[in-house]
Amino acid sequence: MENIQKNKRELIGLIVSDKMDKSVVVQVERFVQHKIYKKYMKRYKKYHAHDETNECRIGDTVKIIETRPLSKLKRFRISEVVKRAV
C-alpha cells in the first residue's frame, strides 16, 4: 500500500498528546532563516494524526503521511514509529 501513494507529504515529529482514541497530536519541528539577521530559528507546528492501533505514546518519534481527510482536523496517519520513548 505504501508504494501506491505518490506525492504525499511525509513528516517526522514527536508525539505530544495521546489522550484521544485512535488519534495523536504530533509536533513537527523545522528550521527557518530570519530574513534580516540570517539566524536559524526553530518553528513548530502540530498535526493531528490517525493511530489505528493506539500503539503510540507521548515522547515517541513517528513518521506521519498525508492522507484523505479522516475528520475535521485529521489529515495525516501514522506511517511508522521511528523511535520509542524511554
Automatic annotation (TrEMBL):
<dbReference type="GO" id="GO:0003735">
    <property type="term" value="F:structural constituent of ribosome"/>
</dbReference>
<dbReference type="InterPro" id="IPR019984">
    <property type="entry name" value="Ribosomal_uS17_bact/chlr"/>
</dbReference>
<dbReference type="InterPro" id="IPR012340">
    <property type="entry name" value="NA-bd_OB-fold"/>
</dbReference>
<keyword id="KW-0687">Ribonucleoprotein</keyword>
<dbReference type="InterPro" id="IPR019979">
    <property type="entry name" value="Ribosomal_uS17_CS"/>
</dbReference>
<dbReference type="GO" id="GO:0006412">
    <property type="term" value="P:translation"/>
</dbReference>
<dbReference type="GO" id="GO:0019843">
    <property type="term" value="F:rRNA binding"/>
</dbReference>
<dbReference type="GO" id="GO:0022627">
    <property type="term" value="C:cytosolic small ribosomal subunit"/>
</dbReference>
<comment type="similarity">
    <text>Belongs to the universal ribosomal protein uS17 family.</text>
</comment>
<keyword id="KW-0699">rRNA-binding</keyword>
<comment type="function">
    <text>One of the primary rRNA binding proteins, it binds specifically to the 5'-end of 16S ribosomal RNA.</text>
</comment>
<comment type="subunit">
    <text>Part of the 30S ribosomal subunit.</text>
</comment>
<protein>
    <recommendedName>
        <fullName>Small ribosomal subunit protein uS17</fullName>
    </recommendedName>
</protein>
<keyword id="KW-0694">RNA-binding</keyword>
<dbReference type="InterPro" id="IPR000266">
    <property type="entry name" value="Ribosomal_uS17"/>
</dbReference>
<keyword id="KW-0689">Ribosomal protein</keyword>
<dbReference type="Pfam" id="PF00366">
    <property type="entry name" value="Ribosomal_S17"/>
</dbReference>
